[in-house]
Amino acid sequence: MADFQPLVFSGVQPTGNLHLGNYLGALKRFVALQATHRCIYCVVDLHAITNTLPESPQALRAATREVAAAFIACGIDPQANIVFNQSQVSGHAELAWVFNCVARMGWLSRMTQFKDKAGKDRENASVGLFDYPALMAADILVYRATHVPVGDDQKQHLELARDIAQKFNVDFAAAIKAEGHGEAYFPLPEPLIQGPATRVMSLREGKKKMSKSDASDNSRINLSDSTDQIAQKVRRARTDADNLPTEIAGLAARPEADNLVGIYAALADVTKPDVLRQFGNGQFSTFKAALADLAIAKLGPIAAEMRRLNADQAYIDGVLRDGANRARALATPTIDQVKDIVGFLR
Ligand code: TYM
Fold first, then answer.
1. Which pLDDT value is given to residue 173?
2. How far apart are CA 113 and CA 209, in angstroms?
3. What separation in Å is there between the alpha carbon of 242 and the centre of ligand 1?
4. Which whole-number Å values give the CA distances from 161 to 53, 144, 158, 219, in the listed order?
5. Which residue's alpha carbon is at the smallest distance from atom 27 of ligand 1?
6. Active site residues
7. Which residue owns the Cα nearest ligand 1 atom 5?
8. Longest dimension (CA), the chain
9. Is pLDDT of 264 > 90?
């Protein structure tokens, strides 16, 4: 396999209600990776129209700016890294077309997220929703990125991206070699699914993922929530009647307890056994009070910074434009080389 420069890429959809799951599963990891890697973080607005069309163009623009503001408020440095919105770099959509012709219907048909989102009315789902993972593969591979920090729910999409990269490398092997790219043109991107909260669950139902689209606002902590809302949601989070266990094994059949312990561990940068050493045998009320304080200490400043940045539209738009220019400069050579490999005249 050819040598690829380590490069991190990840994306977040501007579909409203960024929540604690997005923060712990993705944004917090994005921030940490800046110390060791070159990073590209993208607001994936093309993906945001695949499931339901936005309420209005204004709503999509506002949601796009809000995700960019969240990136920066969480600690991503848009100068040292690249922060931009997907639709400004046409290479994503161009490469997605080629990948549409590499990916197989059978592969996409197996995607559980499509099945969940399309539900029973599959005939009525948009083609974009079905095709979404091919665009996601293009997002990553147009930069030939090697590492992709995501939550656990994106694991299957990352496997698909690897399958697409691999099939492209094999289908076009002769041209890839002839064009001087050696054995493989695309790296097989590695998912980085790390930490104690890769799958944060709903605060109302321990077996359901915390999600932007859950009808109950009490099911999630939004990054924009006030400190009072955070405290109230933690206090009302569903739990069982027992005290916390002292060992991890004791969490096995207790999804709500397991979820809250995972959230605490991720927010405090410790492990779940550390949390149980501190709170095991204690009552839930004591643990919840500590969790509410911790969540407020960590998320309060982010919400305040998001509010400040949201009021400065010109700054956010400038960050996205500048990021898009730098992203385009990286994507264009890939698109040109892919055209040469496939045989498109240019
Ligand atoms: P999206 O916008 O649904 O979610 C953004 C990130 O948050 C993670 N996440 C969670 N992590 C832990 N617990 C949860 N309850 C939870 N909910 C969401 C997601 O795993 C994700 O990392 N398809 C992607 C966006 C995308 C992308 C990409 C990601 C488009 N192109 C290329 C990586 C690389 C999505 O819909 O994420």
1. 98
2. 12
3. 33
4. 25, 11, 5, 31
5. 11
6. 117, 209, 212
7. 12
8. 69
9. yes
| Confidence tier at 54 by pLDDT (50, 70, 90) | confident
pTM, entire model: 0.97
Task: Report the separation in Å between the CA atom of 14 and the middle of ligand 1, taken as the mean of its atom positions.
Answer: 11
Tell me the two tokens of residue 144: 């030939």
The owner of tokens 């799951």 is: 21
- Nearest partner of 254 among 274, 265, 271, 239, judged by Cα: 239
Domains recognised in the chain with CATH numbers? 8-198+312-342 (3.40.50.620), 217-308 (1.10.240.10)
Give dist(CA 117, CA 130) in Å, integer: 10
* Integer Cα distance of 219 and 208 in angstroms: 9
The structure tokens listed for 114 are 């499509």
Sign, Cα dihedral of 76, 82, 87, 88: positive
Ligand 1 midpoint to CA 52 (Å): 17
Tokens matching residue 201: 């669950």
Structure tokens at 299: 């998320």
**Residues with a CB atom less than 6 Å from ligand 1:** 9-13, 21-22, 24-26, 44, 47, 136, 139-140, 148, 150-151, 153-154, 157, 198-200, 209-210
pLDDT of 1 over the 60 cut: no
* 303 CB-side CA count, 13 A: 20
- Rounded Cα–Cα distance for residues 173 and 188 (Å): 15
Grade residue 25 by pLDDT with cuts at 50, 70 and 90: very high
Specify the residue with its C-alpha closest to ligand 1, atom 37.
12
Q: Write out pLDDT tens, residues 282-296.
A: 999 999 999 999 999
User: In the predicted model, is pLDDT for residue 242 greater than 70?
Assistant: yes
Residue bearing tokens 């990054």: 223
- Ligand 1 center–CA 69 separation, angstroms: 17
Confidence class for position 224, pLDDT limits 50, 70, 90: very high
Residues 72 and 30: beta-carbon distance below 8 Å: no
* Nearest atom, ligand 1, residue 210 CA: 15
Residue 2 scores a pLDDT above 80: no
